[in-house]
Amino acid sequence: MADDIPQPLPRTEDLLLPPTAPPRPRPRTKDRKPSGSLASDAWRELRARPLVGLCAGVVLLIVLMAAVPDPFIALLTHDSGRCELIDSRVGPSLDHPFGFDLQGCDYLAQVVRGSRPSLVIGLAVTAGALLLSVLLGLLAGFYGGWLDGLLSRVTDVFFGLPFILGATVVLVAFPSHGLGAMTLVLVALGWTTMTRVMRAQVIGLKDADYVHAARSTGAGPLRLMVRHVLPNAVTPVVVVAMLNIGNVISGEATLDFLGVGLQYPALSWGLQLNAAQSYFLDFPHLLLFPALFLSATVLSFILLGDAVRDAYDPKLR
What gap in Å lies between CA 317 and CA 312, rounded to an integer? Predict the structure, then answer.
């Protein structure tokens, strides 16, 4: 009978009281690092990729080789500094791992020294084209109007010129040229893509809220471009420039191979490939070693640029 007696309903205040028993602790999970700026996130992602470290190591090795070739030559081969015709086209050996070239010079020493012109032209052309592209793209995208139309039409004209064909025509017209002339010609033909990227970035940023806020405080066009638009628009252009270094090095070697680039007695991988093409079947080492160095350098720059592009593009993560 006692069980049939209805029990009083709990009060609302009792339902709101905390439980007497302490809550059960949740299992601890691994703390995730808070997301920082885009640059810090990109740097963290790049460090996590083994291929990036390998490509960066190859690039650093080539840069050091081009800057100070003598220590590498002394470490890797027995180069007396003299060229003997009796040693012409002799194959690789323990004392001379790459053998000898057509003039009887130690080929490893020549390949190491040939890295400097290719790397200097690649970096100088990319830096010059980057500066020109940032300037033109910033002006065209920020001001618009007739200035944008004029620069866009000039860009279309240069964009329609094939890189290698245009450089060949100009260099043939001026046969007495050197490292500086080749750099200027390649800069004049290699700024179009980066200019379009920079222009598109500026057009998308010039109407941002922070730009309007800075304009309302009295900031002039120069301050708006330099302090507010440029820092936020330049990153994609720099990524494209990194991808362009490998293309420029490959283009310079192609021009040297065709005989319209650097001329003897200059040293470059393209000139070595040009000299070795007639002897490939009988003396393959003359073509193999500069081709390996050129391919490794170009591939490392391109893969490094691809990795940087992926790290800075949130859509590709």
Answer: 9
C-alpha count within 13 angstroms, C-beta hemisphere, residue 76:
17
- Can you say how many angstroms the Cα of residue 41 is from the centroid of all Cα atoms in its chain? 19
In the predicted structure, residue 240 carries a pLDDT above the cut 60: yes
**How far is Cα 270 from Cα 67, in angstroms, rounded to an integer?**
19
Q: How confident is the model at residue 22 (pLDDT cuts 50, 70, 90)?
A: low
- 172-189 per-position pLDDT tens digit: 887 777 888 889 999 998
CA-to-CA dists, residue 220 to 61, 212, 227, 241, angstroms: 45, 11, 11, 29
Q: What's the whole-number mean pLDDT along residues 201-215? A: 89
- Identify the residue whose tokens are 């009083």: 8
pTM of the model: 0.81
d(C-alpha 126, C-alpha 214), whole Å: 32
3 state DSSP class of 151? helix
* Residue-wise DSSP of 191-239: -HHHHHHHHHHHHHHTTSHHHHHHHHTT--HHHIIIIIIHHHHHHHHHH
CB 151, CB 200: distance < 8 Å: no
Mean pLDDT of 51-60: 90
Three-state SS at 106: strand
Chain-centre distance for alpha carbon 35: 25
Contact 227, 206 (CB under 8 A): no
Residues in the chain: 317
Contacts of 174 (CB under 8 A, 6+ apart): 181
